[in-house]
Specification:
heterodimer, A: alpha/beta, five-stranded parallel β-sheet, 9 strands, 13% strand, B: 459 residues, alpha/beta, Rossmann fold, six-stranded mixed β-sheet, two-stranded antiparallel ribbon, 54% helix, globular
Chain lengths: 298, 459
């Protein structure tokens, strides 16, 4: 069995209720669906990391930023990529500085020097260590976890289950205040079962029509209500079409901005035809959508 | 802590319901450990039981690990944490009245109201069988009597009359209404399941009446909708497999020690192998040949696999795909263009390639023979051949020498059979004979296929 459940002390909770989550996230400009709000609330209460999956451009990374802003916490970000390793994720010794220190102190005994060069001063903390040290509130964002190699997952397991890091020369650093952890993944690679088990799972899909309309209105304030509604309806129809790459929320907002810039006040065939490229990124998709929407020649 | 949890959630009743719910999910292949169940209970305590939506999201967050399980989860959740219990109060509404109100709800796109109507509709129209214990509720019967699809024109007029839509979005209206009707059908099905579960026992209905997640559906029995759903998973699956292949390739690139050359090199350092020499890697990408049975019985399986391999084509130097029923033809070109229109792929292959001779049933012997005669050059020492089909020869000669010849030429030959292993060799199946010559793998659903392809594809 895993370690027994340890609830956080009450004063450490960020949110008081699910509605509180939605309301405060909305203040920062992040409109959360009920699923998102509930899961964020639970992650805060249960003190577990949050694993967020979903198509590109639905606001996975934004969620972490919004939570950090709401909580008045520092956002510590670990961007994963192929080949990211312990030295990049956890900590590193500052070799150059250590060498300087050794050559500066010529008269010291070896024991003194050794004791000195493996101290905090020469440690370069990387995101994971930064996130669990110190008493100020932090949000740890581990972005695109699926891009990292499998070995890094093993590293994350220790950090995410016990919130501690062992530095052989210094001893074990345990978090005095647990950070709010968000991992994002595009499902490029299946994350291991062990990592998934330690997290709360949240799938952010495309928002429903009403929510998306609100998002568009919020992000593109100049757009008229009726046009925003039409924009969202067309995007909804495109998503139902079984395309190679369905347009995401980011694309919807881009499209709305484009329409605003073009000064279009209603959607018509010509406008949609000319701007379809903003929404769809494959030529096959453009052709297919044009056929289904009855646009004459593209 | 337990005592506190009991107070807040109504004690053991909730606990046993939760464990029953978890057990039902496990029966459907969702892997849930005890730790997650405890987390779920903790979530119930924190969220309370007052708001069903919150409860559902909370349980989903703690119990699920992947996206594909959500549909299954929602269906089972509906059984264990139902919206209401028993029949709705009040008199059962008549068919016409229900249609009337449904049309209004559809026009307003009010899904909560549609949900309530679904409950009334099942109660009023879906019951069958008089004697208690023998009867039940049928979503099929409800929908047959209610016929929501015939409301399309009326709803459209309603929406237009209200001045909704207008302009360009007007042309989307029909599809939108169809989608709303689909949602209503789903609601009716869920409600009928719930009512039946009340009568027959939740656990049994959860096991039998909830459809498995798409990647566990047997190819051979998957309906049209399920296949469409599967087709949507081709791209993500291909991406996952491509990453896995790339990783395998990277590992292979690191290479193994070439003992002979290491020892030869060590002569200059007095026999101490100071510098290990790695085996030189030949950077050649493998070739792939697919032989697909596209006859009616296994068409779903073949289509899916062809699309998957096509999606992976940039991982290989050459991919050639051949389709056959009882004659064989190359369909590589069709597949390249078919990627955009996956749904019509099977039909186009059957229309545009010469796949049948005198009759319409599949004949593996003739097809294999024709392959060796006409396209024998496609198979070389760098080629991996995949044969897809159920190996049911309709009593014709299995033509083992042809397959033996292919196996001799190619680097690897794998046979993927969509039938359960227990059925191999029954009736007209020549699976055991073929399996003696080449490796035959059971490949009944998308999950198995993904695992096999990831393992078998050459690096």
């Amino acid at each position: 069995m895993a370690a027994p459940f340890r609830p956080r002390p009450p004063e450490a909770h960020l949110f008081t209720s699910v509605d509180d989550v939605s309301a405060r996230l909305a203040e920062t400009g992040y409109l959360a669906s009920p699923a998102v709000a509930t899961t964020v609330f639970l992650a805060d209460r249960l003190g577990k990391p949050l694993l967020v999956e979903g198509p590109a451009g639905v606001g996975k990374t934004e969620l972490a930023k919004a939570v950090a802003e709401v909580a008045g916490a520092r956002l510590v970000r670990l961007q994963c990529y192929e080949g990211v390793d312990e030295a990049r994720a956890l900590y590193e010794w500052n070799h150059a500085k250590q060498l300087l220190r050794i050559s500066a102190g010529r008269d010291e005994t070896w024991d003194e020097t050794r004791h000195d060069i493996f101290s905090e001063e020469f440690l370069l903390p990387r995101p994971l260590l930064t996130a669990i040290r110190g008493d100020d509130p932090k949000v740890l964002l581990i972005d695109e976890t699926d891009k990292a190699d499998v070995e890094v997952e093993g590293l994350l397991l220790e950090v995410l289950s016990d919130f501690q890091v062992t530095v052989p020369e210094l001893g074990t650093v345990t978090a005095t205040r647990r950070p709010f952890v968000v991992l994002t993944s595009n499902a490029g690679r299946e994350l291991s079962e062990a990592l998934r088990r330690r997290c709360l799972f949240l799938h952010i899909g495309f928002p429903d029509e009403e929510l998306e309309r609100r998002i568009v209105r919020l992000k593109v304030p100049g757009l008229e209500e009726a046009l925003a509604a039409s924009v969202v309806r067309v995007v909804g129809a495109l998503r139902a079409m079984d395309l190679r790459k369905a347009p995401s929320v980011a694309e919807t907002v881009d499209w709305a901005r484009t329409l605003l810039a073009l000064g279009a006040d209603t959607l018509d065939e010509a406008v949609v035809r000319d701007t379809l490229g903003v929404l769809l990124k494959h030529q096959d998709d453009v052709l297919k959508a044009a056929a289904k929407l009855d646009l004459s020649s593209v | 802590m337990t005592g506190k949890a009991d107070d807040m959630t109504g004690g053991t009743d909730v606990a046993s319901r939760l464990t029953g719910f978890v057990a039902a999910l496990r029966d459907h292949g969702v892997r849930i450990g005890t730790g997650e169940t405890v987390d779920a209970a903790e979530a119930v305590r924190v969220l309370g039981l007052a708001d069903r939506e919150l409860l559902r999201e909370g349980l989903a967050a703690t119990l699920l690990h992947t996206t594909g399980q959500r549909q299954l989860f929602d269906a089972v959740f509906g059984l264990y944490f139902p919206q209401g219990v028993g029949a709705p109060g009040g008199d059962a509404a008549g068919r016409e009245e229900l249609r009337e109100r449904l049309a209004e709800a559809l026009a307003a796109d009010d899904s909560a109201l549609m949900g309530r109507l679904a409950i009334e509709a099942v109660d009023g129209l879906g019951g069958y069988g008089g004697a208690p214990g023998a009867g039940g509720w049928s979503s099929y019967q409800t929908l047959e009597r209610l016929r929501p699809q015939t409301l399309l024109a009326r709803v459209r007029d309603d929406v237009r009359a209200r001045g909704g839509g207008g302009g360009f979005a007007e042309r989307l209206l029909d599809d939108e209404i169809r989608r709303r009707i689909e949602v209503f059908r789903g609601q009716v099905a869920a409600e009928a399941r719930r009512r039946v579960a009340e009568r027959r026992g939740r656990d049994e209905i959860a096991r039998r009446a909830v459809a498995p997640s798409a990647d566990r559906v047997d190819f051979l029995y998957a309906g049209r909708e399920r296949l469409a759903e599967l087709r949507r998973t081709v791209q993500p699956l291909a991406r996952t497999l491509a990453t896995r292949l790339a990783a395998r390739r990277r590992r292979a690139a690191r290479g193994t020690i070439d003992l002979r050359r290491t020892l030869r090199g060590s002569l200059s350092t007095g026999g101490v192998p100071v510098r290990p020499v790695l085996r030189r890697r030949r950077p050649a990408r493998p070739e792939l040949v697919l032989l697909c049975d596209v006859s009616g019985s296994v068409a779903g399986f073949s289509d899916f696999t062809m699309l998957l391999v096509q999606a992976l084509h940039d991982q290989f130097s050459k991919v050639r795909v051949f389709g056959f029923v009882n004659r064989l033809d190359e369909v590589t070109g069709l597949l390249v263009h078919g990627a955009a229109d996956a749904a019509g792929l099977g039909a186009r292959i059957r229309a545009e390639a010469r796949l049948t001779g005198w009759h319409d049933s599949s004949d593996y012997g003739t097809a294999l023979g024709e392959f060796t005669e006409r396209y024998g050059a496609a198979v070389g020492p760098r080629t991996t051949v995949f044969v897809l089909g159920d190996a049911r020869t309709n009593m014709a000669d299995p033509n083992l020498p042809a397959l033996r010849w292919i196996a001799g030429q190619a680097r690897h030959v794998h046979w993927l059979n969509p039938e359960p292993r227990a059925l191999w060799g029954t009736g007209d199946s020549a699976a055991p004979e073929y399996a003696e010559l080449v490796a035959m793998h059971e490949c009944r659903n998308a999950r198995q296929l993904g695992a096999l392809v990831g393992r078998l594809l050459p690096v």
